[in-house]
Each structure stands twice: as C-alpha cells, then as structure tokens.
Specification:
This protein is of the alpha+beta class. It is built from five helices and 22 strands. Helix 2 packs antiparallel against helix 3.
Length: about 325
Amino acid sequence: MHTTPVKKVLAAWLLGLVLVGAAFVATVSFMNGRLYSPEHQVDLYLEALRDGDGGEALGLLNASVPEGSNPALLDGDALRRASAPVEDVEVGEARESGADRVEVPVTYTLDGAETTTVFPLRRIDTEWGFFNVWRFEESVLPTVQVTVGNSVEATVNGVDVGLPDGTAGLATFYPAAITAQYDGQFFAAPEQHAVVTSREPPPPLALTTEATPELTRAVDDELRAFLDGCARQTVFQPTNCPFNYVTNERLAGDIAWSIGEYPAVSITADGGEWLLAPLRGSARIDTQLRDFFSGAVRGVSETVPFEFEADLTVTGDEVTVTPVVRY
C-alpha cells in the first residue's frame, strides 16, 4: 500500500502537534515546579531580606506591620544586618497542608544552631489558566520589645532608635538576628541579643545602663574640687563642708586642712535617676592648741573621718554634683 503525499503531510502535521503539546506540557510542569512554585516565592522573600528591601519582603510575605510598632528594622542596613547571620540556607520541598495549601520548610544556621522555619502558602489563582500563583498566608509581623533603663534611645542593629518612656516594640521580619545596645558619653548598656525564627515574638531585650568611666571621672573631679575648697578654709568648721574639728582648747597657730582620702564614687540607676552612694573619706587637720588652764601649747595632727551625700544631675553633656551636708 502506497502512502500518498497528503497522508505524509497530515502525519507530519499530527506528529508536530503531539511534539508541541508534549513540549507545552513539559514547559508548564517545569514552570510550575520552578518559577511558579511556592518554593520560589520563599526564595524571593529570603533574597529580599538579604538585599534589605523591606517593601518587597513585606509584600511577598503578605504581612502587616503591627499597629504602634517601630519600623526601624524593616528596611535598609538594619534589615541587612538582621539577615546576614542567617547562613547555610536550604529551602525544602513544599508539603501539602490542605486544599490548595502547602508548607515550605526552610532550614538554616543562626547563632551556631540549626533551625527550621515553616512558611505556609496557598494557591490563589493561575496565570493563563496553566501556571499556579502561590501566596504566603496572611500574617502580622512579630515585634521585639526593647527597653533601656534611664534612657530614651538605643542602637538596634546599628540604627539609632527612639524609645519613648524607655521602651518600644520594633516590628521585625524572620528569620532574623537582633542586637541592641546603648553607648552614651556618660552611660552605656552592654549588647543584648535575640533571634526571631517565626511569628512568635522573641524574649524582650532589656538593657541595663551603667555609668561610663567618663561619668565617674567627671563626678570624681567635682567631688575633689568641692573637698579641696573645704580644705582651703582655715577654720575648725569649714562652711558647708562635711568635716570639722571640735576642741575646748584655744587656737595657738594656723589651721591647715588637707584631704587624706577622697571618697570612692559609686553610681547606680534608680527610677530614671542616677544616685550616688554615700561618700566616705577622711581629712587631716594640722594646727597648734593652747591648754585653757595650763597655757601649754601642743601640736595637733589628726585624721578626721567624714561622710556625706550628694545629688547627681546629668543634662546632655553637663554633669552637676550637689553635695548635701547634714550636721
């Protein structure tokens, strides 16, 4: 039986349709498995975090920013610093969790520990009737609470953040590493660290401020100046000073005071104020006294312990120490 030219053309045409159809099916399958896959959406989200593109990340995650939260960590350098410690990232295969819903596990190393975060997505549509459109389930970003004693600001992931009344909730993406610290001229708080691996908020970052060596020196200088001023007074009872010398004998020479031991400075925070611990030291008096009855003159060189308190006020770069002397 001979095949006519028309049959040959028709067969070739049908074969071509079959091949085109197969190629189309393969293309759809490939695209749904790659560019239109839920895993690809997760890849895009993680890439946006690494790039510090908070707007892109927020849209991909389909998340909202909690009302009243501080957005300082959601873009730019702060976001890049939060994402940089997330290493060895592996996006796992999506697993079904319901009708048109999947969960995509992401395994990574953060702070030296291997952690897994699961992202839920759902299929919301198709493009051109063939390609699946996946979207993250709607959510609200977690917040990390940052508090600092005796300050209204802190540095979080390298960005200065205002803390009204000493506290603020900062919205954050995840996974992320958050560091907070305070470094001021006169006060500082050691760095505190937290990791965010899910929608659940991490433990609060509580910063405890302490006096810097510069503040301690400034207070010490003022106290020394005060006491040195007291020592320059040539009377038994220097005015508004914490030490004196009591005697029933008559003065028979000059009075010379000197400070034997200056008080050690200890500064603590208390309810938004800075307190100085009681100040203890000693002075020395050198003089001559005449006995009231015998008229004999004797030299006096004695150590006089003293104790007093002082109020501390720090305003900007100005330190004021006000001695409080009670007789």
